[in-house]
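## retry 2 of 3
previous attempt timed out at serialization; input unchanged, resubmitting
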Amino acid sequence: MSKSFVQITTDVTKALGTLRKEAPETMQGFNAMAKGALQEGELTELHKELIALAIAVTQRCDACVGFHVKALIRLGASRQQMMETLSVCTYMGGGPALMYAAEAVRAWEEMSPKTTTA
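## retry succeeded, writing output
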């Protein structure tokens, strides 16, 4: 059975809501760290999200792949930017990274807005 990255991110978002209620200090700290890490500086937010996707792929985190692909789409990343990032992941992480690079492609295809041709 194939996994759905839309479903994974939906389910994890719900569980994170529970953590926000029951472990608010931890979640506030994590959210502050994420905001600080992704704030534009010498690197754009898009470049930082590409790095985050690379780490998600090499760490084999399904939810992370889903969330970072979703962010890349929101930020207007091109498919080619993602593919180049995944190429570096494969180079550095070998076969296991290649398998999760393929998962990131599936997430992109599932989450990208569909275009129709007339």
